[in-house]
Every structure is written in structure tokens, then in C-alpha cells.
Amino acid sequence: MENACPPIVLDTKVLIAGACRHAGSLAYRVLMAVLDGQIQLMLTEGIVAEYADVLGRPPVRKLTGLTVKQNADLILDLISLSHQTQLHFSWRPNLLDEADNKFIEAAIAATAIIVTYNVRDFSHLDLVKHGWDVMTPLEFTTLYDLEN
């Protein structure tokens, strides 16, 4: 990597796309960089709970091809490699999808970049960005020169 990667908060849809294991996909590249220890992943209990819930859904398991055990192993790997972010304030930025607030809270607490396909979902904020940002997998992998 040419530039040192800042910590990230990984949106669930990017995790799912990465878990589909299409080697050329940008989501897969980001997920592998996390699992290889190149990128520090920031997690909260709420984010882990969402990952487990969504990965465990039958349509998502069919899409990713992962078994229940493989899903559990992936989540445990992410937890073991991540930094558990402590939330000291409950920011309520009034996003269109209330469930996305947990990602903003983690990004603020960790001064991290949210990697998401839905940048627009995070654009309805009254919060000023101080050290945290929102990027697509393409923007992130391009800016931080993640290898194929």
C-alpha cells in the first residue's frame, strides 16, 4: 500500500459483497485487506450484531455460499482483528435509515472512514466531519492503493 490506511467502519452491504468472494470485486479486496491486517476495522456491539443477523439470513447465506459455521468464523475473525470502538455519546444524525446511525457513531468515535456503497444514505447529516469520512469501495481502494 502506498498510503497508510486509516481505520474503517465497514457497511454491512460491503461485507456481504466481500463475503461472496468474487476475487476481482472491490468489496472482496477491502475485506481481504482487513483479514490480512492491512486495514484496522472498527467495530461496535451493534455492528457485530447486524453482521451476524444479516449473514445468518437464508437468502444471504445462499448468496455468499457460506455455511452457518463459516459465517460464525468470519465474524470471529473480524472481531479478533478489529478494534472494539467505545461509544461515549449516542449521536443521532437522523439518517434516512435509522439502522445506519450505528456506523456514523463508530466512525465518529474512531475517527474512521465508513466504506459503503450507499454514500447518499450518509449525506443527510447535520454533523460536521472531523476526521471521519464516507467513501465507496472504489474511492477507498483507489485512494489507498489496495493491491488486487
From TrEMBL:
Record SUPFAM superfamilies: PIN domain-like
Superkingdom assignment:
Bacteria
InterPro entries, from UniProt? PIN-like_dom_sf, PIN_dom, PIN_toxin-like
Domain PIN: from-to ranges? 8-120
Q: Could you tell me what this protein is called?
A: PIN domain-containing protein
Q: What species was this sequence derived from?
A: Rubripirellula reticaptiva
Q: What is the lineage of its organism?
A: Bacteria, Pseudomonadati, Planctomycetota, Planctomycetia, Pirellulales
